[in-house]
Amino acid sequence: MSDWRRLEGPLAAWASGDGPRVVFVHGFTQTSNSWKPIAARLVTEGYESVVVDAPGHGKSTSVNADLREAAAMLSTMFGSSVLVGYSMGGRLCMHAALMHPSAVRGLALLGASPGIADEAERAARRGADDQLADHIIEVGVDAFIGEWTSQPLFAGLRLDEHERADRL
What we know:
Elements: E1 5-7, E2 13-16, E3 21-25, H1 36-44, E4 48-52, H2 67-78, E5 81-86, H3 88-99, E6 104-110, H4 119-139, H5 141-149, H6 161-167
Parallel strand pairs: 3-4, 3-5, 5-6
Antiparallel strand pairs: 1-2, 2-4
Helix pairs in contact: 2-3, 4-5
């Protein structure tokens, strides 16, 4: 596995390798560890891979930032780079590309969209998100992570104790 060095900045991030920079941003309830196996592979192909904990996740749990602020953090911390994001991380990367195009050399998005165009559907989604937030507060983060990761989508996901601790 690659050697990861901690990067300075408002978001917890680690880099490995040398070459053109590729920054990986995880989805909701994940951490930078989610991307490490793929990011490490790019290191062997001559890239500098960076994995980052998004605000409110992993070692960036204490970072309180909205989407625009987090996009600015990405752009400022990592400069000219290719951004790769999954789901929530994809939306974050998309905003960084739109707000700071000179800092983004390329963009790869998985399971991400620019948002819901229809106002009624957007309002319904906000309501569902509020209910989910209330549920997380009610059952606690540990229990919620267990519920969330028990979905079929995450059936092959294995967490060691270090990764489990990074999620909280």
